[in-house]
Amino acid sequence: MTKAEMGRFNISPDEDSISNSSNSNEDFLYSDFPVKKLTINGGPYDTDPENQNFLLEPTLAKKKYEPAYIPGTTSFGMSVFNLSNAIVGSGILGLSYAMANTGIALFMILLVFVAIFSLYSIHLLLKTAKEGGSLLYEQLGFKAFGFFGKCAASGSVTMQNIGAMSSYLYIVKYELPLVIKELMGSSAVEGAWYLNGDYLVVLVSFFLILPLSLLRNLGYLGYTSGLSLMCMVFFLIVVIYKKFQIMCPDWGYHDELNITLNNTLSALVTHAPTHEVEHNETDDMCTPKYFVFNSQTVYAVPILTFSFVCHPAVLPIYQELKDRSRKRMMNVSNVSFFAMFLMYLLAALFGYLTFYGNVEPELLHTYSKVVGAGVIFIVVRLAVLVAVTLTVPIVVFPIRSSITELLFSGREFAMWRHCLITFLILSFTNVLVIFVPTIRDIFGFIGASAAAMLVFILPSAFYIKLVKKESMKSVQKIGAMLFLVSGFIVMIGSMTLIIMDWVHNATSDGH
């Protein structure tokens, strides 16, 4: 779900295995961290009161071999649940659109590769954290590349979370007017302000989300992650169930009218019988494609990458894992990724097989054009709306902490600054949601930039720089170097193609 959920985890010093004394060369260097104050090469790092609240307990500072050392207490199963919550999110709503523009076979290939690459980057991140002696993403960046590395890590995490916030608020913008219209029935007035998504997203942001976001400690809102996951599971069940109720191409009155008009025009041009053209068009429209290449295919990899980003939450979950070791944490990652892989695949497949090429960038919104979709979708929309609305304040927290750490490091907490940064974050995100045309653009841009940095570039770059005991000619370092290069190729290639698509669409609209 969101990376901000790590705010509800206790932070305690890591220990790969207390009994495994032969592997001491992989232990964290906790002697570098004085009690109650994290440092980097003797300088203050995490002295901001907000960051301390976010970590809940600044016990990371305890030395590893002190008797007061507190091991992780979270079970394997709960760690899987927590990481699954960190993975799943609004990205699941864009996967059917990605499948429609890649085809079933190509989508499955891309999904497998992105999942494997994400797992490999977690392996690099865990090993780098051991060698670098830190469980903080920004601190690893500072240790590896100084202030530039810290800015890169902080900027990527901030962009990723802003992308997540934007996708959640897009759901509010698209779905809340439909829910209000359904609930009001015939009394709803077309064009009324309460059916305008732009107005509604601003009202929800500043009258509901803003007060919750101003709290200094949002740890108790962690229960919303479980609610969000349950909502997504419910959403998946409904998508599978509705596939066998909604018959292609019976999607609604407007679509049927467009199909009839198109078939009539085609018949006049080709002099073919109308019913023959209609039959051919329907067969083609309702036939699944296995390989598709078009102008929207470029969004597939960024959408998939965006959907699998969970890396800033990995280290806090690792920190809390009971009987922790890298092998045990990788098992947690394997189980979580496999579960989310199945969930993503089923949601994308059944959503695509319901609407085929007519699926929209946000799958839940696609059902709104189905006449008589049923009251169950009102329930689904309400559940998803509640989940994403209560999750946004958690996403605000790490963004604010990161900005505070970069611009006001070492200063005392000031409520005016706390409120101003929160207000600016929400205002900027609302501007994005109102003026960026579709959620596809958010998924694409953030997936191609920040998500690519977090999945491909930063873990491999930190590994190459901080893991000293392996030579640059070792298989591990060569693999990390190839992974780094592939990350730059994915990011630059995806960004270039997306910008070209934007320019092309702008030119087309101009004509």
From TrEMBL:
Leader peptide range in chain numbering: none
Catalysed transformations (reactions): L-phenylalanine(in) + Na(+)(in) = L-phenylalanine(out) + Na(+)(out); L-glutamine(in) + Na(+)(in) = L-glutamine(out) + Na(+)(out); L-proline(in) + Na(+)(in) = L-proline(out) + Na(+)(out); L-methionine(in) + Na(+)(in) = L-methionine(out) + Na(+)(out)
Subcellular localization, as worded in the UniProt entry: Cell membrane
Domain annotation Amino acid transporter transmembrane: ranges: 73-499
Entry-linked Pfam families: Aa_trans
Region described as Disordered: 1-23
GO-annotated cellular components: plasma membrane
Annotated TM spans: 80-98, 104-126, 191-213, 220-241, 330-353, 373-397, 418-436, 442-466, 478-500
Gene Ontology BP annotations: sodium ion transport
Domain of life per record: Eukaryota
Molecular-function GO terms, alphabetical: L-glutamine transmembrane transporter activity; symporter activity
Keywords for this protein: Amino-acid transport, Cell membrane, Disulfide bond, Glycoprotein, Ion transport, Membrane, Sodium, Sodium transport, Symport, Transmembrane, Transmembrane helix, Transport
Family in the record: Belongs to the amino acid/polyamine transporter 2 family.
Official protein name in the record: Sodium-coupled neutral amino acid symporter 2
